[in-house]
Amino acid sequence: MTSMGKTRRMVSVGLCAAAVAAALAAPAQAAERIGSGVDSGKGPSWNLKDTGADVRFRGLAAVSRKAAWVAGSKGTVLRTADGGGSWRNVSPPGGGELEFRDIEAFDNRRAVVLAIGEGEASRVFRTEDGGASWTESFRNTDPKAFYDCVTFFDSRHGLAMSDPVDGKYRILSTGDGGKSWKVLPNAGMPAALPGEAGFAASGQCLVSSGPKDVWLATGGGATARVLHSADRGLNWTAAESTVPAGDPARGVFGLAFRDRSHGIAVGGDYRAGQASPNAGAVSGDGGRSWQQSKTPPEAYRSGVAWLPHSGSAALAVGPTGTDLTLDGGRSWRTVDTGSYDTVDCTTDFGCWASGEKGRVARLEF
Question: How far apart are CA 20 and CA 264, in angstroms?
Fold first, then answer.
């Protein structure tokens, strides 16, 4: 057994098994039941899964409670179809020098993975056979571009974003499930702030909800902003968040929208040992305005996900732990001290988290 297995952590972060069915039947009561589970010490827990890898998995795509994909450093992509009991290495051949930071999966067989970096280091690969084979569908040829994140509205339409090129964020679009990509015109993109960029930390600097709405998280500039498009990336508006920026290491790192109106932003200062005050914010108007969390996460958080069948419960993760909110991101409390970079949930309560040293965990019932 690996050291990961020896230190398997079971920390209560949610609702008891009976509450799962109740939450499905009565979503409005889900937050109360989740809170009861936390306070009583009962319910599901982060259960570390032995991946057999030691790379950092910043890319995560939850398909169900049984299936998930992770992507990380050294060109590594793993897939499980049995709830994390076993993992198949399905890394694209010849990609050992690539840094995968985001992966989007449509099911057990179809997925799109993004490699980051300057120039040709930024690439997109696609598989239709569970990773048995991959096709490189995009390779960046502009030395000024650096792609950070990718998101899909459905199984065909998706976007990827690059740090600013010639003063504006660059958006890449696909309408065939990632088989082909084109750079969108930037006439509808507002100018980037000096020093502003996205963070390829959790695959959540570009997120979507519904058929057309998409949000882009920034940092590094004088203020941390969230940009929003309601037409699949053609036209954008920018809003200042309350998450501190003003430094290349600070800003909004992760976004989650449960619908086109209600969103959560998390971030802070990613440098170890640095304070991250006001590391959480919420929006109830589709990102047009943001309010500071009354009780924000106590430390930098890079990933965030709404818990299924609840309009007010969500998890935020980072290198120093997991935080839980029961009121839509207004107040948070730490419920686990394990290191994770990103988190993702499915409607069947398939919540997964991944991070450094091959760490992958699932919420167990």
Answer: 23
